[in-house]
Amino acid sequence: MTLTREGVAYRVACDLPEGSYVNLGVGIPTLIPTFLPAEKEIFVHSENGILGVGPYAEPGAEDPDLVNATKEYITLLKGASVFDHALSFTMIRGGHITHSVIGAMEVAANGDLANWRVPGEKVPGVGGAMDLAFGIHNLYVAMTHVNNKGAPKILNKCTFPLTAPRCVRRIYTDIALIEITPDGLVLREVAPGLDAKAVQAKTEAPLRVADDCRDMDVPAEFHGIRLRA
Amino acid sequence: MTLTREGVAYRVACDLPEGSYVNLGVGIPTLIPTFLPAEKEIFVHSENGILGVGPYAEPGAEDPDLVNATKEYITLLKGASVFDHALSFTMIRGGHITHSVIGAMEVAANGDLANWRVPGEKVPGVGGAMDLAFGIHNLYVAMTHVNNKGAPKILNKCTFPLTAPRCVRRIYTDIALIEITPDGLVLREVAPGLDAKAVQAKTEAPLRVADDCRDMDVPAEFHGIRLRA
Amino acid sequence: MIDKTVATCSEAVAKVFDGATIMVGGFGSPGIPSMLVEALRKQGAKNLVVISNNAGSDDWGLGGLIQDGRVRKLVASFPNSPGADAFKDLYMKGEIELELVPQGTLIERIRAGGAGIGGFYTPTGVGTELAAGKETRVINGREQVLESPLYADFTLIKAYRGDRLGNLTYRLAMRNFNPIMATAADVVIAEVDELVPVGTLGLEEIHTPGIFVDAVVKVERHPRLFEPQRARRAKK
Amino acid sequence: MIDKTVATCSEAVAKVFDGATIMVGGFGSPGIPSMLVEALRKQGAKNLVVISNNAGSDDWGLGGLIQDGRVRKLVASFPNSPGADAFKDLYMKGEIELELVPQGTLIERIRAGGAGIGGFYTPTGVGTELAAGKETRVINGREQVLESPLYADFTLIKAYRGDRLGNLTYRLAMRNFNPIMATAADVVIAEVDELVPVGTLGLEEIHTPGIFVDAVVKVERHPRLFEPQRARRAKK
After folding, report:
1. pTM value?
2. Is C108 near chain D, with CB under 8 Å?
3. Residue D81 to residue B125, Cβ atoms within 8 A
4. Number of domains in chain C
5. Residue D5 located in a structural domain
6. What residue spans define the domains of chain A?
7. CA quadruple D99, D100, D104, D107: dihedral positive or negative?
8. Partners of residue D146 on adjacent β-strands
9. Superfamily for the B5-222 domain
10. How far apart are CA C37 and CA C12, in angstroms?
11. Is A126 close to C102, i.e. CB distance below 8 A?
12. Beta bridge partners of B24
């Protein structure tokens, strides 16, 4: 059994502590807000100068002057603030954002991250990816464990151009939660019904299994959203 | 005949064009606002984060949260804005302030300025003097022509520690208006009743007399304030 | 009396010259000076260097300017967003130059240009393609790359409200690059949704003080600026 | 629920340790966190390094902290203002260290500390005593000096209004160093004149977003903060 994309987002959401200031990248991370429990105050940052991002705007109620970093129309929570790009990136590059959850194409055993460019890709773009990867201490990756050809994305060494070296702390995927330590990858959790061997089979870099390695605590569904595939 | 301190301030005020953004230092420059004609819109900047400084606050009407760079209680003009120190010094160091008028202890023929520290002075302080001297293109000095011992302050070379090299464009004193050019000092105006020779006698550095050198156009008084001594 | 208001966008951009460097504010649709960019398209200056986070959208605004072949070089962090087809086409044909800059480095370089900073060190990009060949040094145990300021001949920005002195405020996410770009060009031109009398904007709430602004034009918003349909698609 | 409010200044400064580096906001009396500094005097930490534009006034606030011999080193632009007698006395006796920094360089160094900038080049100071011995380089034909970031263990600031999330606004000239210092310390403590419910402060008008702030204390203003008599003398 594996997690859905929503399931991965759910699992990350459980780990974000109250009072955290979180930047969410494109891909699976954009699904996280749905799973943040209402009783935990967590502040979502958008690189275009917003702290306190709320749910998407209802159709017809969009405000033309209010989008997130992915250019989707959003709402703001009470206590939100808006500011210019310089202050927004002061938050990122100064390390004030406590957590960043981003997608990845490749992650290496030493924490190297590749998520901005496929070699040979026609037109490059980087956005705020490097600023986040260099600036945020708790940099978490949320992604599918393997690519769409079934090949591992967690490698001994990245093959794609790096976003930043040695920056990723944790990897949340559809089959595992892996921590990146100075001694390499540590398997902390596996999807219900799978075991460490199954995860290793889909991971190029060697995994050390944590003594307290356990099943990912993700229910089958959440308010009608399927979390397990 | 010489100008009073107010007379020097009056003469400087005449040269500030409409639409200029002006930082005024301590000493004679603080007297300038009195002489800015009401019909000319000029924006006075205070380094502590104010653009659009108005007259001093009336006694009893001071606002505890509103002082200028000299810590005097002031008022604001319509259209004024307040901001933080970083933006305030962006205005100065980025060269957005069009004119700075400051006092000086010494000015050299090449435009070197010394106005922040007397050698042997006990406790040093620099404030924003260097930022102004390095940042503002139209840096004007307003001062008495000689020091309180009667010795020249316009020298071949400064003897006091420099605020900035080659930064002063013009010097307004109680007896002359001198422009600093790549070829040295040019005497543009002399106080009514004096001549170039009298000014040179009180100036260490050599003065070239401008072809159109003329009397300073400063009346004897202005709204009851004596401008000539 | 100082009056920085200008009647039309055409008048406001009249002095843009061939080869000029131009900053264009905005992120997504909020804060994009579309009407000024459209006026620039009509004005005709070519060989432009444009500094902007994105490469515009479709065939209007900055996308249109690029499609018209008027931009020699783009300095941007994310020129490959959906809709930036004009840029992508020209880039693939080798007909437009790209300087790709991490977004935080981009805004910091613009701020440095406006604040008189000659250069700065940042860790962002070290060890990646985007810092290749650049000078680095280790500061406090961390390798950092030296980045240079950006400064333009003209900056085009959009604000919500403005007055004749050039004081500006921005609504919600319109602010983004605009107030910083306003500090970093010889000539700064703002299009605004509303022109208000001096004194209307709260003195503690002015985001761009008039000192930075040379011209203010009141505009109707470009009809393409607000596209909730796309937003709805994005939510699916 | 996040609640950054703290009941008393003593509680807010309780964790300041001997040898800590402390930024103190304010310029003149506006924006000076006097009650926090008074609490710090009572708290007792010594050997402090203080970063502040001025050296305080007379025998209260920062002036008092210095007079009590608790400050080992001051980083300031104008420590010799009228009333800074405690600093002047100790400095003359060689009992306090001074790092004198041009005011614009001071705020830029603090901003760099908060923004993750490793260092920057500025023309300010080149060829003067204050850049003596510092690394310089010529950039665009102008010699510039390399300046380093400033970062503190604790920042003490004053704001006008604050909420439990740490969002702050400043009245008039209170802003000065405060919002920038709020970005550049491990622990940021704000005293405010008014505590307001979340949502009261306009989202476009929040000058310091709560992300930067760790603790908010409501205070009555220090009685010495407002001294119009001095202002009247200054006008003569």
Report:
1. 0.97
2. yes
3. yes
4. 1
5. no
6. 5-222
7. positive
8. D121
9. Glutaconate Coenzyme A-transferase (3.40.1080.10)
10. 11
11. yes
12. B101
